[in-house]
Design a protein that fits this description.
The structure is a single chain. A 16-stranded antiparallel beta barrel has the order 1-3-4-5-6-7-8-9-10-11-12-13-14-15-16-17. It is mainly beta and 366 residues long. Helix content is 8%, strand content 53%. It contains 2 helices and 17 strands. A hairpin with a 6-residue loop joins strand 7 and strand 8.
């Protein structure tokens, strides 16, 4: 009996020492609400008929995540993140029906910065997420305007088989570089992704930049949108009428300036997609985030100019409000209007058609 108690005490001591060196956090977001869309893309039967629906992940993608670190000594740590995306309205998997479709990586962190390997967020995604008042979510999402919607799809948003090196912060600068392996025999560049991002902080000013070169981006150049592609539809006449693969080069530069409780956002971007045809897009964004009592007001204007077609300008206007019940739970509402030129149909069913969208719901973080 004494030996058993001694063994138990030793095991408890060892377990305590191990837990002191290792940290694992379980976290997540549940966001669900109601969406009203007049002119909804991806629904031929709807056309300009108003559509009411319960929607998942309107202001934040629903997720269940695990992240942690282990102290390896001498300032070196092992780090990891596994992040599942799901649809709260019906319980199905999101992000292409993947178990950990949002993020899935492991790496090392130390005085040199960090190296991470796996499925990760790209420099384009991180730049837009930082600059967008709506955080690349909801009806005001800058992602679905950026590059005529190409900013919203993989591997431009998230990159598989990727190695990212992030430098330690130095004199206000943060920088990262990443390479996503295509894994194609005899062709190192085919289906690969290359990106870099640099941020600079000086007092109330934050400057954000990114560049990305991605091979093998799948998109639909047809004149008929689908629900899966939504805004990600290339104007007809630029490429064949089937889903095709393109090389996409895109860049973003923007800034946020803090005036006390008010933040002003601005950005400009360029995208060029080359397939059987060529798509050239220039993007502009202006936005504001302001405290209003205990809540927050959000607003943005996104212009998407498809310079390679006539009548290629789309303007997306959005205003939103969030009310926090606590640091974890808030109510929200977002109202957006998209005005399309005669040659494009961002967020809408037909060229030149406009779209109006209203969202409201509840979000809980844990």
């Amino acid at each position: 009996m004494k030996k058993a108690l001694l063994a138990l005490a030793i095991l408890s001591t060892v377990a305590g020492a191990a837990s002191a060196e290792t940290s694992v956090t379980i976290y997540g977001i549940i966001d669900v609400g109601i969406d009203y869309d007049h002119g909804k893309a991806g629904n031929a039967a709807a056309g300009t008929t108003p559509t009411w629906a319960e929607a998942s992940g309107q202001t934040s993608g629903n997720r269940l995540g695990f992240k942690g670190s282990e102290d390896l000594g001498n300032g070196l740590s092992a780090i990891f993140t596994l992040e599942n995306g799901f649809n709260a309205n019906d319980g199905t998997l999101g992000n292409g029906n993947r178990l950990f479709g949002r993020q899935s990586w492991v790496g090392l962190q130390g005085n040199f910065g960090s190296v991470k390997i796996g499925r990760q967020l790209s420099a384009t995604y991180l730049a837009l997420q930082t600059l967008d008042p709506f955080g690349t979510s909801s009806a005001g999402d800058a992602q679905r305007a950026y590059g005529y919607g190409l900013g919203k799809i993989d591997p431009i948003a998230r990159s598989d088989n990727t190695v990212i090196y992030q430098l330690p912060t130095l004199a206000g600068f943060d920088a990262l570089a990443g390479y996503g392996f295509g894994g194609q025999p005899g062709n190192f560049n085919k289906l690969s992704t290359k990106f870099a991002g640099v941020n600079y902080t000086m007092g109330p000013l934050l400057v954000v930049t990114s560049f990305q070169d991605t091979d093998g981006v799948a998109f639909s150049p047809t004149s008929t949108p689908t629900a899966a592609l939504d805004a990600i539809v290339i104007p007809s006449g630029l490429a064949p009428t089937t889903t095709t693969s393109a090389t996409v080069k895109n860049s973003v530069i923007g800034a946020i300036y803090y005036f006390g409780d008010v933040k002003v956002h601005a950005a400009i971007g360029n995208t060029k997609a080359e397939a059987a045809g060529s798509l050239k897009v220039r993007n502009y964004m202006l936005g504001v985030t302001a405290q209003a009592g205990v809540g927050t007001i959000l607003g943005s204007w996104n212009r998407d100019n498809v310079t390679s077609v006539s009548g290629g300008i789309s303007d997306q206007f959005a205003i939103g409000y969030t009310y926090p019940f606590s640091v974890r739970t808030n109510l929200y509402t977002v109202l957006a209007y998209t005005k399309n030129g005669s040659g494009v149909r961002m967020n809408a069913w037909a060229n030149g058609q406009n779209d109006r969208e209203l969202q409201f719901g509840i979000r809980h973080k844990f």
